[in-house]
């Protein structure tokens, strides 16, 4: 799918002044309102100077019509796709660490096998490095925050119809307006989308329907809103493919042989039904003196009824074993967040102080039956049609789990004259996990608390020059108990980053050095294999290079990230030195601009190159997956209120590995795909 290559939104045209502090360093739901009342902004970057941020804006979404976040990873320096559950769960790998807990409007997005439809999204904001001080439990690699569509001030209705390869058809309708007249202060946004198509290689259907309704009321000193969403997904689990060779542990890794153009799954797929419901409410109020109170609450439910027929593991270079499961999954989550924002003038310095608290609850009940290894099938000719569930001995599957998280934070950002901004934040976070895997009743599986923090600074040290530096920490839960019966402490991450940026009228260029270390990774206790200890340690360090030029309406954007990963303390003796799936380098190039045509038709052409370097294909570092360079192209024709879209993803029709976590957990990227679309206002 489309992977674009821009480090930030396109800069202004030539001879226009480029802002010294790019918008990509900020994160918000919508632009702040101009009437003095509080906006719907969830400004996660406002108190974190010295950090690297990237924005994927509406122009990028319109140009490339992406179907999922992973299609946009080329926009994000240091980022590669890391789809979970064969792509049915959205995840990316940022700076070498998987980011699977995504956020929507500053709140946790649906955490149970969910891929957000980007028709509901206005922008996507990405922070590189730990974001725990303001978001709580997050990945060491960074955080992703979807910024949902919101009602506009002017009424509008539009539709987009696209069709393309693999039987793809999609219709999206987007409407906004006021309820009760313009003076009522009541506005709405309504989005509906339906798509149908087929996954190649196994004739699997791809069907999804999405609905979104947002209503806001502006009462002068504040704003209150509700965001309701639903999604129905009928796409079967597709498993992926395998690497059919391996080298010797401790020796130089050999090139991986990938079983291309096949899915080890029942042809046509098995029954799949997933229903997602989500609600989010938000309130913003501004007091006399400028203080603001922000409150958010969100809830979601997921119901899944699925049958999976595919492979379990690679048994030999030419054989895989089968996997059959039928299950019912019921999931709920709820979260709340309250924050007080206090603008202060102390000692001649401008402070933006904030204090807040949040909480998160998650529960799911997973019930089903399964059988592993009833059938062996050939890698070169996978066929699971002989798997007869009526003759299988079925084993029960059960998982009943509850997760509770609470946090409180204090943060401040200080502006010193017009050249320096310093910020700091501290959070106290705790979590508990109760689980039952056999149906005998839930017991405590994990409990811990930790303090996370952030400190950073931005400064303009010369005309057109800006520098930044920061230190940040993060945490993620560990499960299990030591031989003494104590729960493991959480995993702890720390990032150091230093960077500089040079800005002229038509050029913006930056470089950042960073290092992330993850400690307290769970591993078997060498003295007692029935217990675990928190002693593993990993490190990824790298260099991000970003540049963008603008001239005569054309923009040329480039990014490159060089990375080096290493196990400092291996959690298993069989592991190699490098982390699996982390490339040596990622980068790309995008050229975008107008094309002169006769008459009233305007055209915009975009070309993109994406490069991903070699990666280790297994934890033992015995096989090395080749890197790739992929080309995408897009042409947009505009005439009045109509836009015609023509695009090709993977123009060269190359075979490449999109993500890999093991020799039998490999996802091949799509072959050449094309689409033709019409977007128009009604």
Mean pLDDT: 90
**The CATH homology group name:** TonB-dependent receptor, beta-barrel domain
Low-pLDDT runs: 1-41
Termini Cα gap: 30 Å
Largest sheet: 22 strands, antiparallel, barrel
The CATH first-level class comes to Mainly Beta
Oligomer: single chain
What best-fitting shape do the alpha-carbon axes yield?
Answer: globular
Number of domains: 1
State the secondary-structure class: mainly beta
Helix content: under 10%
* CATH topology title: Maltoporin, Chain A
Counted by DSSP, the helix tally is 2
Q: Rounded to an integer, what's the Rg over CA atoms? A: 25 Å
Q: Give the percentage of residues in beta strands.
A: over 45%
Number of strands: 35
Mind telling me which CATH architecture this is?
Beta Barrel
Q: Would you mind describing this structure in some detail?
A:
By secondary structure, the protein is mainly β. The chain has a single domain (23-272, 290-681), classed as TonB-dependent receptor, beta-barrel domain (Maltoporin, Chain A). The chain has helices at residues 58-64, 132-135; strands spanning 52-56, 79-81, 92-94, 97-99, 103-104, 107-108, 121-128, 142-148, 156-164, 169-178, 186-199, 204-218, 222-233, 254-255, 272-286, 292-316, 319-346, 349-378, 395-416, 420-436, 443-462, 465-476, 491-503, 507-525, 528-551, 554-569, 585-595, 602-612, 615-616, 623-625, 628-639, 642-649, 657-662, 665-668, 673-681. The chain has a 22-stranded antiparallel barrel. Strand 29 and strand 30 (623-625) form a beta hairpin. It is globular.
